[in-house]
């Protein structure tokens, strides 16, 4: 099960990377088209869709690598059962919120499909297409939070050491 979950997080991260490459392509196309005096409609909208997709698809892998911002002021002062209880509470709340968010993201995408909702910009893209990335990313994030909760309850959760997550210079 661990290999399957890690593969899911890695696949979502790879899709986020592909969205970043697509974003670069849209920006470069926009720049080149302006320099050569022709217009490619929709490049700005597609760049926005790809940016949102990259952000949502990268959430779970970022969580699993300990790169999300956490306020550890209280946690660092606690030890033992108290710290464990606070971690479980925080992960339960985060899991619940992620599940709710993923439900509504999937519902939004489905409703956009049913109502044939399209973008108001010049590209006239069916909105359910870019919303799939948001829905998929939020579902994978919810799975990752539940995974972290289960690991914490079993006492198998890997703690990221201070300074290990963010390599700031």
Main β-sheet description: none
Strand content: under 5%
Radius of gyration: 19 Å
User: Which runs of at least 5 residues are low in confidence (pLDDT < 50)?
Assistant: 165-169
Number of helices: 6
| Subunit organisation of the chains | single chain
Helix content: over 70%
Distance between the termini: 37 Å
* Protein structure class: mainly alpha
Number of domains: 1
What spatial form do the alpha-carbon principal axes imply? elongated
String of helices and strands: HHHHHH
The pLDDT mean sits at 88
Give the beta-strand count: 0
Model description:
The chain starts with a helix and ends in a 15-residue tail after the last helix. The relative contact order is 0.15. The protein has one domain (2-154). The protein is built from six helices and no strands. Helix content is 72%, strand content 0%. The protein has 169 residues and is mostly helical. The radius of gyration is 19 Å and the shape is elongated. It has helices spanning 2-35, 43-57, 59-64, 73-77, 80-114, 128-154. Helix 5 (80-114) runs antiparallel to helix 6.
Describe the structure using short key phrases.
mainly alpha, elongated, single chain, 169 residues, disordered C terminus, 72% helix
Topology:
Elements: H1 2-35, H2 43-57, H3 59-64, H4 73-77, H5 80-114, H6 128-154
Helix pairs in contact: 1-2, 1-6, 2-6, 5-6
Quick summary of this structure?
The chain is mostly helical. The protein contains six helices and no strands. Helices cover 72% and strands 0% of the residues.
